[in-house]
Amino acid sequence: MDIRGVPEAHVDRALDLVYLVFHDAPEEERRKHHRELVLGCERIGAYDGDTLVGFLAAHRFTLSVPGGDLPCPGPTFVAVAPTHRRRGVLSALMAELFRRGVRQGRPLAALWASQDAIYGRFGFGPATEGLGVEIDSRRPLALRVPPDERPLRLIDPADAPAVVGPYFEATRAARAGRHARDAERWRGEWLAERDEDDDELSPPRIVALGEPLAGYAVYRTKAGGDGPGAPGLVRVDELEADDAAVAAALWRYLAAIDLTGTVRAWGRPLDDPLLRFAADRDQVRVTGQYPGLWVRLVDVAAALTGRGWAAPVDVVLEVRDDHLPANSGRFRLTAGPRSSAYGPTDDAPDLTLDVRDLAACYLGGTRVGSLVRAGLVTEHTPGAAARLDDALRTELLPHTGDEF
Ligand SMILES: CC(=O)SCCNC(=O)CCNC(=O)[C@H](O)C(C)(C)COP(=O)(O)OP(=O)(O)OC[C@H]1O[C@@H](n2cnc3c(N)ncnc32)[C@H](O)[C@@H]1OP(=O)(O)O
User: Fold this and answer.
1) Which residues, in sequence order, are CB contacts of 64 under 8 Å at separation 6+?
2) Which of ligand 1's atoms lies nearest the C-alpha of 56?
3) Does one domain contain both 76 and 139?
4) 336-364: b or e for each residue (b if 16 or more CB lie within 10 Å)?
5) Which one of 267, 289, 311 terminates a domain?
6) How many structural domains is the chain composed of?
7) What is the CATH number of the domain that holds 338?
8) Which family does the UniProt entry place this protein in (predicted)?
9) 103 CB-near residues (< 8 Å, 6+ apart)
């Protein structure tokens, strides 16, 4: 098997392979969009002779991490021909992605997994989680906080990247785990006229509050199924707000749209204020909790020194990394709000952990202590996990709804 870059001339073959393994046959417009996406990506292929039997595209993302931003390839469209499965093709594609990451100074990689079982073995850990939330909107939304009463306005989707794009960009400083979006990503992924998964949904609507902008929601609606007057659906794709009053105004608006009876939001942050200020948790229900972004620390030293730290910490980590030996061994992490260092040491370890578990904790969404209690991290020095947790902590939990 030959692992090499996939030239533009092979992109249609790569898409055919992707559609084959995902049992998909998108219409021409969607295929064109995928083609554009893949052309903008780094592309790695596995060739058996001249036949492309494995493919991986990686978005050239920049990911928000606590206190900063790091380059972070986002693997997607990962496909191995059914004739060549379980022979190490994906492993070889991943190895090449990691090699390039180390060589080109990109300390992270991050993806959304089609199946949870696949990526842990490659050192990815679930670093953000999302909630499914459903509101019974057949009655007014009961709130414990007064909503911001400034007027709401609808924004033309064509103008949305310019109007709400900068606002979303600012949220990345507060929430780790979000990658920067350009206008193309807004248009192709968030504001596409038709929803990729559900033809019956309306085009995207964008509602905004405040001038300058204090919050917005992107949503789509669907008419009710059983005859005239049957309550339809409001599907919320994104909602960001300066504070609880603005968020309350946006949720109240979404729950009061005529001819609808359910508001459904997917991938909300675990610390969404809605779940606190909703007066009736029978009306606002969490319907599920899911891993979101899986993060890989490709270069652990660069990743750890590339993020900010909430409190001083001095610990020796014994890290296992079965794929990237440079990450394996004992390292002293000395970090604090002003600076950080990470280098090899012969000192006894305070904590022993796998690189995938370090990745799960990296953005501040998983507590090291919880992994000690789960038997995944070994604490040799009592209190070491708590000290590391204090340093990893972020004010807001990491979160992204940007599935790719
Ligand atoms: C980021 C994304 O794009 S996610 C989308 C991933 N793609 C898909 O789900 C499309 C359909 N599936 C496929 O194309 C392929 O089966 C892939 C890409 C999932 C796996 O490719 P393969 O070349 O078969 O994987 P490879 O042989 O390198 O497997 C490496 C290891 O992962 C394991 N593995 C691979 N796929 C899976 C899976 N779906 N579930 C559980 N384990 C898996 C293998 O058993 C193997 O384990 P081992 O090291 O203990 O022997």
Assistant:
1) 172, 173, 175, 176, 177, 178, 179, 180
2) 3
3) no
4) eeeebebeeeeeebbbbbbbbbbbbbbbb
5) 289
6) 3
7) 3.30.1050.10
8) Belongs to the acetyltransferase Eis family.
9) none
Contact 378, 395 (CB under 8 A): no
Predicted complex ipTM: 0.96
**Cβ–ligand 1 contact at 79 (below 6 Å):** yes
What CATH number is attached to the domain comprising 93? 3.40.630.30
The reported pTM is: 0.96
Which tokens belong to 98?
């990691």
234 is in an annotated binding site: no
Atom of ligand 1 nearest to the CA of 85: 24
Residue in 38, 48, 72, 85 to alter for ligand 1 test, most ligand atoms within 8 A of Cβ: 85
Q: Output phi, psi for 195, to 5 deg.
A: -75, 135
Ligand 1 pocket check for 91: Cβ under 6 Å: yes
Same domain, 308 and 281: no
Listed in sequence order, the residues at least 6 apart from 198 whose beta carbon sits closer than 8 Å to its beta carbon are: 222, 235
User: Which tokens hold the place of 189?
Assistant: 């992924």
Domain of residue 19, residue span: 2-106
Strand ordering across the sheet containing 284-291: 152-155, 205-209, 215-222, 232-241, 260-268, 129-136, 284-291
What are the pLDDT digits (tens) for 336-380?
999 999 999 999 999 999 999 999 999 999 999 999 999 999 999
Neighbours of 25 (CB within 10 A): 9
Question: Which of 293, 277, 229, 264 has the alpha carbon at shortest distance from 75?
Answer: 293
Tell me how far apart the alpha carbons of residues 211 and 122 are, in angstroms, rounded to a whole number. Answer: 46
Q: Considering the domain boundaries, does residue 115 fall inside one?
A: no
Asked if residue 21 has its Cβ within 6 Å of ligand 1, the reply is yes
- Start-to-end CA distance of the chain, whole Å, equals 27
- Of the candidates 136, 143, 129, the one whose C-alpha atom is nearest the C-alpha of residue 274 is 143
Residue 42 burial class via C-beta count within 10 angstroms: exposed 0-12, middle 13-18, buried 19 and up: buried
Q: How far is CA 391 from CA 129, 360, 362, in A?
A: 20, 15, 11
Nearest in space to 4 (alpha carbons), one of 34, 49, 38: 49
Q: Among the three residues 70, 89, 106, which one is the final residue of a domain in this structure? A: 106
Decide: 201 in ligand 1 pocket, CB within 6 A: no
Q: Where are the alpha helices (DSSP H) in 85-159?
A: 89-103
Q: Which residue has the tokens 């994104």?
A: 238
**Tens of pLDDT, residues 278-317:** 999 999 999 999 999 999 999 999 999 999 999 999 999 9
- Which 8-state DSSP code applies to residue 243? S
